[in-house]
Amino acid sequence: MGIHKAYYARDWKALASYAKPFCEDTARLKETHVLVRELEAGSLDEVFRIQQGEVWSPNGEQRDLIYKLGLMHTSMSVGDVVEDPEGVFWECRPVGWNNLGRMKVTADESPEQPTLQKEGA
Predict the structure, then answer these.
(1) How far apart are CA 82 and CA 102, in angstroms?
(2) pTM of the prediction?
């Protein structure tokens, strides 16, 4: 168990291309994704399950948050990203997860807009 961070893709239409990873340039994560929330989970697959709309927003409870963040999807989907408790970022793929590597996150003025720097940079 540990705290995971769920980042949703800003442009859900771009997620339609399943042939290649959506988040190829992790340094641009703050431009392509937005932090939706932090949650306690035991695995990436548990994060995915918890982040399905019927689980965390069965009656539309999170609709205002989703709109406020400029998003159009409540359920985690292909192209969305999870940061695990060790600071490793994972992109949700049609089957499984793509390891995007470890990044150093420093908050700027907006908590949902982290500044990402590769370790050692």
Answers:
(1) 11
(2) 0.79
Domain boundaries, the chain: 2-118
Which residue type is seen at 24?
A: E
Contacts of range 50-53, beta carbons closer than 8 Å, 24 or more positions apart: 51/6, 51/75, 51/76, 51/80, 52/76
Cβ-based neighbour number of residue 82 at 10 Å: 23
Dist CA 115 CA 30 (whole Å) = 7
The answer to whether residue 102 scores a pLDDT higher than 90 is no
Q: Closest Cα partner for 53 from 81, 69, 73? A: 73
The overall longest dimension of the chain from CA atoms, in Å, is 44
CA angle (12 as vertex; 75, 101 as ends), nearest 5 = 80
